[in-house]
Amino acid sequence: MATLKDLAARKPVLATIRLIVPAGAARPAPPVGPALGFYRLNLMAFCKDFNARTQKYKAETPMQVTLTAYKDSTFEFVVKSPSVSWFLKKAAGIDTASSRPGHNNVSSLTLRHVYEIAKLKQADPFCKHMSLEALCKSIIGTANSMGIEIVKDL
Ligand SMILES: *[C@@H]1O[C@H](CO)[C@@H](O)[C@H](O)[C@H]1NC(C)=O
């Protein structure tokens, strides 16, 4: 028997739409309104679902949405949080990474920051099978390559 996922995969696709939408703040206004309206998709249903799914992120976090619109006016979407470097810069309160990481560190963060970013990243479609430990290691690697030193306590 075909699963729902198989059936969905067979539906004729009308378009794939990519949008950046602030967490918890999808509204029937640009850019969301016109993009979904153009394909006659249920705008209010999208806003409600997106806002529910992105509740746990801080307001204004720029979420990356990839929406698949089907010919029967139904749709599906996946939401991805911003890059690890975006979260690290926000947490450290810096705009740019160090030009000489390791020699000239621009900031320090604690393991707690790393852990919080890892928990948010784990909600991403491509990270959900990664352990928190693996995510933390990868985040520490990114931090070090940006000149952000990770310490136990500040
Ligand atoms: C910068 O951070 C790295 C990695 O966290 C550390 O090994 C290095 O000693 C730091 N460099 C300076 C100059 O503080």
TrEMBL record:
Keywords: Ribonucleoprotein, Ribosomal protein. One of its GO terms (biological process) is translation. Pfam families: Ribosomal_L11 (PF00298), Ribosomal_L11_N (PF03946). Residues 80-150 form the Large ribosomal subunit protein uL11 C-terminal domain. SMART domains: RL11. GO terms for cellular component: large ribosomal subunit. Residues 17-75 form the Large ribosomal subunit protein uL11 N-terminal domain. One of its GO terms (molecular function) is structural constituent of ribosome. InterPro entries: Ribosomal_uL11 (IPR000911), Ribosomal_uL11_bac-typ (IPR006519), Ribosomal_uL11_C (IPR020783), Ribosomal_uL11_C_sf (IPR036769), Ribosomal_uL11_N (IPR020784), Ribosomal_uL11_N_sf (IPR036796). Belongs to the universal ribosomal protein uL11 family. This is Large ribosomal subunit protein uL11m. It comes from Eleusine coracana subsp. coracana.
